[in-house]
């Protein structure tokens, strides 16, 4: 575990921003490939990107700070509801709605972080579940705001920059989401390598040692939770705008558990792992869920057990090892 | 007055069901430090087995309970050997959470493939199904039966843990696993026996509580959170803790549902947050190193 922090520092101070530029290009290339190859499935791909924000957000608290949470969908859901309610009440500019989602998500993140980050282990897990369930119960009961179990429908966002409107093929929604994903991903790459991000990694590896060298652990975790909430808020607002409805499923326990599965499938503690897990899992789900939902549960259960037994660090780890070995070989020759 | 008595009986019965199921989970968490989210899934297997035994094999209720408990323990053996052994006392709760969620999903899928996706009833024998007249009013017999089961379970467990050789070894393994090992206590056997005990209690609770927590396809997921909450509020590994937490939460939930049904589970989880925040190691939990 100790070599993780070092790995994330660039080996040499080469060309600035080259990592970020490459990552952005990779995401753009993959997104463009999706746009060209699956023009009929853009609605699904848009939803996929929306959930990816939530997985990235969970990675910030679970992968980088070591907080096990089963209530993270609350940040996503609160932002989705906030954007949806604002849209129904007359604010229709997509960027403004995005801003509302970010603020709502960040606030929810700060609140839940303030509660959850005080503890570790089982109490932490139970508090995270309780916070998530509390939000779900509220979303169900505040019928006049959220539509209760019927969901919040008829969210119609206006035109992006006043030019491109959300069409029924989700073209605009997809490209808009993809563009924001690139921006957020690059920003997060910088963020997790900042002194603050590295300190959070240190807290994850050994919080006692972090305390001993004078780090205020609790406030940092709460701030990280706030940032994570903002990222989840982006996803929530985008999903609310692109699908036009916000339902109780966006705050449910199942959603929280599912994104945790995605994160660990890809590999917690890596932004690329989170993204890869989100994409792989949802494509798998999209293909299998058409069958009986119970077969789907059996398969996911089996998949989870296999991952925990054979690749507890996620699928990204073997890929990274291979890349490292190749790089070393290249240098030696 | 009438309402108060109904609330009291229902809350007590509900609390006892929570206790019987959760105490197994609590023992496992206290001893093996496993956050076993699949505990409800094993209780569900017990319920399905009992339902099958009564409705298709036409055995008596008491025999069905035995079949359910023993059958569930047999089903759980491969899980223990292949999977749970890997995560005993492993410090990373994330891995435990994931594996046990995986086991839960897997069991839900397989059970529903085998027994079908509909709600399963466990028919009660005539002795338990009617009301019982206690003089000034009558009470549902089944509720009283559940309460009696809870009391008997608590007493039996207390005797087992405090008064028998097995209990002494178990407590030694809980407090200082390495030292117990060094003194010649076969901790892995103690672990396996405790696992079987925990699963058996879960199955027992699943069967006798089927009237209150109906056996249905998503049973394991629906009540997973509730059982975990009981253990966390009570403190892992404590019988008194689990009992008081079950009764407290049973009371909170039942009262809330009687008096303010429109708020659903809101007050329940609010109570949980307040309690966990004030007592992070549970009402009767001990702080583990």
Report on the architecture of this protein.
Chain A: Its main location: membrane. Chain A: GO terms for molecular function: branched-chain amino acid transmembrane transporter activity. Chain A: InterPro entries: ABC_transp_permease (IPR001851), LivM-like (IPR043428). The complex is a heterodimer of chains A (333) and B (289). Residues 1-5 of chain A have low confidence and may be disordered. In chain A, 73% of the residues lie in helices and 0% in strands. Chain A has one domain. Chain A is built from 15 helices and no strands. Chain B is mainly α and 289 residues long. Chain B has a two-stranded antiparallel ribbon. At the A-B interface, α6, α12 and α14 of A face α4, α11 and α13 of B.
List the helices and strands and how they pair.
The complex is a heterodimer of chains A (333) and B (289).
Chain A: H1 3-7, H2 18-37, H3 42-63, H4 73-88, H5 94-116, H6 122-141, H7 143-146, H8 171-193, H9 195-205, H10 207-212, H11 217-243, H12 253-266, H13 271-288, H14 293-310, H15 316-332
Helix pairs in contact in A: 2-8, 3-8, 3-11, 3-12, 3-13, 4-5, 4-11, 5-11, 8-11, 12-13
Chain B: H1 2-32, H2 39-57, H3 61-87, H4 93-115, H5 126-129, E1 131-133, E2 138-140, H6 141-163, H7 165-175, H8 177-182, H9 187-208, H10 219-222, H11 224-234, H12 239-259, H13 266-278
Antiparallel strand pairs in B: 1-2
Helix pairs in contact in B: 1-6, 1-9, 1-11, 1-12, 2-3, 2-4, 2-9, 3-9, 6-7, 7-9, 11-12, 12-13
Indicate the proportion of strand residues of chain A.
under 5%
- Using only CA atoms, what is the Rg of chain B? 19 Å
The number of domains of chain A is 1
- Rg of chain A over CA atoms, rounded to whole Å, is 20 Å
Mean pLDDT reading of chain A:
83
| H and E order of chain A | HHHHHHHHHHHHHHH
Main sheet specs of chain B: 2 strands, antiparallel
- In percent terms, what proportion of residues of chain B is strand? under 5%
- Report how far apart the termini of chain B are: 47 Å
Percent range of helical residues of chain B? over 70%
Biggest sheet features of chain A: none
Main location (chain B): membrane
GO molecular function (chain B): transmembrane transporter activity
InterPro entries (chain B): ABC_transp_permease, BCAA_transport_permease
Family (chain B): Belongs to the binding-protein-dependent transport system permease family. LivHM subfamily.
């Amino acid at each position: 575990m100790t070599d993780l922090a070092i790995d994330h520092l660039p080996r040499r101070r080469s060309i600035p921003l080259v990592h970020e530029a490459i990552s952005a290009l990779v995401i753009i290339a993959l997104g463009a490939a999706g746009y060209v190859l699956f023009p009929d499935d853009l609605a699904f791909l848009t939803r996929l990107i929306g959930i990816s924000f939530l997985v990235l957000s969970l990675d910030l608290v679970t992968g980088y700070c070591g907080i096990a949470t089963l209530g993270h969908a609350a940040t996503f859901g609160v932002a989705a509801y906030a954007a949806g309610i604002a849209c129904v009440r007359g604010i229709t500019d997509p960027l403004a709605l995005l801003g509302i989602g970010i603020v709502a998500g960040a606030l929810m993140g700060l609140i839940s972080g303030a509660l959850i980050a005080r503890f570790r282990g089982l109490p932490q897990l139970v508090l995270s579940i309780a916070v998530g369930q509390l939000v779900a119960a509220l979303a169900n009961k505040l019928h006049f705001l959220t539509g209760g179990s019927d969901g919040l429908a008829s969210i119609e966002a206006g035109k992006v920059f006043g030019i491109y409107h959300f069409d029924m093929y989700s073209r605009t929604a997809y490209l808009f989401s993809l563009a924001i994903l690139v921006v957020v991903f690059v920003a997060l790459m910088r963020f997790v390598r900042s002194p603050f991000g590295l300190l959070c990694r240190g807290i994850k590896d050994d919080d006692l040692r972090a305390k001993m060298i004078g780090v205020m652990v609790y406030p940092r975790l709460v701030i990280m939770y706030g940032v994570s909430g903002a990222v989840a808020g982006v996803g929530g607002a985008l999903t609310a705008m692109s699908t036009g409805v916000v339902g109780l499923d966006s705050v449910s326990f199942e959603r929280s558990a599912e994104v945790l599965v995605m994160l660990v499938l890809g590999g917690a503690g890596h932004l690329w792992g989170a993204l890869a897990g989100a994409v792989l899992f949802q494509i798998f789900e999209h293909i299998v869920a058409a069958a009986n939902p119970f077969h789907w549960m059996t398969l996911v259960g089996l998949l989870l057990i296999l991952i925990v037994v054979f690749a507890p660090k996620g699928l990204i780890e073997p890929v990274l090892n291979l890349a490292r070995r190749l790089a070393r070989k290249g240098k030696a020759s | 007055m009438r309402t108060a008595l109904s609330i009291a009986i229902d809350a007590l019965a509900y609390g006892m069901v929570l206790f019987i199921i959760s105490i197994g989970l609590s023992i496992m968490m206290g001893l093996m430090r496993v956050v076993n989210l699949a505990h409800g899934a094993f209780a569900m297997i017990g319920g399905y087995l009992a339902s099958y035994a009564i409705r298709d094999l036409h055995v008596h209720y008491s025999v069905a309970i035995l079949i359910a408990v023993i059958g569930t323990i047999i089903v759980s053996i491969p899980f223990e050997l292949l999977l749970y052994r890997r995560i005993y006392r492993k410090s990373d709760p994330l891995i435990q959470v994931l594996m046990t969620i995986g086991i839960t999903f897997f069991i839900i899928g397989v059970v529903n493939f085998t027994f079908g996706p509909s709600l399963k009833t466990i028919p009660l024998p005539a002795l338990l199904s009617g009301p019982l007249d206690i003089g000034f009013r009558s009470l549902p017999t089944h509720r009283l039966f559940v309460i009696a089961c809870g009391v008997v379970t608590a007493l039996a467990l207390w005797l087992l843990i405090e008064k028998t050789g097995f209990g002494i070894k178990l407590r030694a393994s809980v407090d200082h696993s390495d030292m117990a090992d060094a003194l010649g206590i076969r901790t892995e056997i103690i672990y396996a026996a405790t696992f079987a005990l925990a699963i058996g209690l879960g199955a027992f609770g699943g069967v006798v509580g089927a009237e209150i927590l109906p056996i249905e396809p998503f049973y394991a997921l629906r009540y997973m959170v509730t059982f975990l909450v009981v253990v966390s509020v009570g403190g892992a590994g404590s019988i008194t803790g689990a009992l008081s937490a079950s009764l407290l939460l049973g009371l909170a939930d039942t009262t809330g549902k009687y008096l303010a049904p429109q708020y659903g589970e809101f007050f329940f989880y609010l109570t949980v947050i307040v309690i966990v925040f004030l007592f992070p190691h549970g009402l009767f939990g001990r702080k583990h190193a």
